[in-house]
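Below is a filled-in request sheet from our internal design queue. Each sheet records the structural input a requester submitted and the sequence that came back. We keep these sheets so that new team members can see what a complete request looks like end to end.

REQUESTER: design group, bay 2
PRIORITY: normal
MODE: inverse folding
CHAIN LENGTH: 331
BACKBONE (tokenized):
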């Protein structure tokens, strides 16, 4: 069997059409997802292989070119020994927060596949159910963003900075442990047939340059250097594009602040992903989404481009807009 369109495009091969998928394509914007989820607790739902398989596969009906597995960036912390709850309007919150080196040492930097067995079973089941129709993408959070959740800080950068200042050794050890566990996790999923991976350092774009050089960039390098599958790096609206280009990622996910055509010219050996604004997916009309998607395809020039959004699907996005996005991509 020849490889899937998305996999070939992610590798930078010449393709017959630019493939499309969307960050957070499986989730709360889709009424079918809400029906399947049925008010169940997030982590219980994601650990239920049958339910998580159904959630992962729901976007197939829209015509996407790849399936991303349904779990969360905090799933790996749970496997390392830190349980989480999803709090309404807040996001993932650890049952106990990291406050010291002693706490960091409770996190296992060498999780075994048994420790994230639900993800392994999900990958197997989704692959089996797809019967080769589409490739399966896996992901992890990058150290900085995941560590922020381990502290209970989430998007609150100042809380993270306070901890790094008060407990510099514990902070460094926390980043290192997460990076090591992430290498093992993604390598294992690669070995079991994932087509590509995406590393989400969602909140690292808010760091200043020195912080980014210490807390984000070297950890991206370490994770990517241990993998051979196509490797996508996402940092929300990242001001440090040059760093992304030197991270070992083979695909760079662009935000709305970036110029896709300019990036294609500047880095001809990299593949770029993006960058239809997710705000338009939420607030625009299907016609506006269709036009913006066509404009994005034109900027990408038809090669070394994977169509996606600037960030994930917003829960308030209408289904008709997602349909317009796919129609423009494939029409
Ligand atoms: O209530 C619900 O149904 C839970 C919402 C939800 C979902 C659908 C959470 C909680 N996690 C997920 C699954 C998930 N998370 C996926 C797989 C589904 C898909 O992509 O289609 C992925 C890739 C993630 C990744 C993730 N989780 C990121 C990185 C991506 C990004 O948006 O920047 C981050 C930052 C998280 C943390 C997180 N998990 C959930 C919430 C509500 C949050 C906070 C996000 C925020 O505050 O914006």
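RETURNED SEQUENCE:
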């Amino acid at each position: 069997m020849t490889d899937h369109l998305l996999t070939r495009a992610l590798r930078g091969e010449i393709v017959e059409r630019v493939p499309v998928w969307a960050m957070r394509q499986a989730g709360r914007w889709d009424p079918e997802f809400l029906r399947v989820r049925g008010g169940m607790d997030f982590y219980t739902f994601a650990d239920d292989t049958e339910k998580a398989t159904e959630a992962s596969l729901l976007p197939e009906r829209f015509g996407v070119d790849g399936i991303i597995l349904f779990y969360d960036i905090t799933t790996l912390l749970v496997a390392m020994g830190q349980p989480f709850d999803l709090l309404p309007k807040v996001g993932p919150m650890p049952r106990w927060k990291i406050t010291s080196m002693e706490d960091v040492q409770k996190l296992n930097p060498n999780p075994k596949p048994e420790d994230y067995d639900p993800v392994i079973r999900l990958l197997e089941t989704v692959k089996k159910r797809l019967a080769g129709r589409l490739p399966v993408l896996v992901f992890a959070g990058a150290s900085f963003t995941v560590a922020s959740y381990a502290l209970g800080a989430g998007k609150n950068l100042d809380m993270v900075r306070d901890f790094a200042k008060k407990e510099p050794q514990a902070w460094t050890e926390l980043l290192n442990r997460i990076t090591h566990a992430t290498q093992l996790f993604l390598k294992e999923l690669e070995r079991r047939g994932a087509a590509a991976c995406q590393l989400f350092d969602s909140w690292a774009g808010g760091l200043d340059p020195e912080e980014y050089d210490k807390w984000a960039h070297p950890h991206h390098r370490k994770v990517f250097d241990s993998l051979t599958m196509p490797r996508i790096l996402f940092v929300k609206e990242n001001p440090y594009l040059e760093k992304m280009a030197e991270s070992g990622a083979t695909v760079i996910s662009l935000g709305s602040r970036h110029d896709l055509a300019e990036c294609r010219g500047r880095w001809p050996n990299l593949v770029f992903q993006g960058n239809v604004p997710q705000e338009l997916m939420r607030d625009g009309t299907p016609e506006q989404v269709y036009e913006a998607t066509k404009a994005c395809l034109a900027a990408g020039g038809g090669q070394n481009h994977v169509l996606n959004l600037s960030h994930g699907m917003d829960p308030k996005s209408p289904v008709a807009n997602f349909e317009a996005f796919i129609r423009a991509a494939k029409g």
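SHEET NOTES:
- Strands lie at 67-68, 84-87, 91-94, 136-141, 196-200, 231-234, 251-253, 271-276, 305-309.
- The chain is about 45% helix and 10% strand.
FILED BY: M.R.
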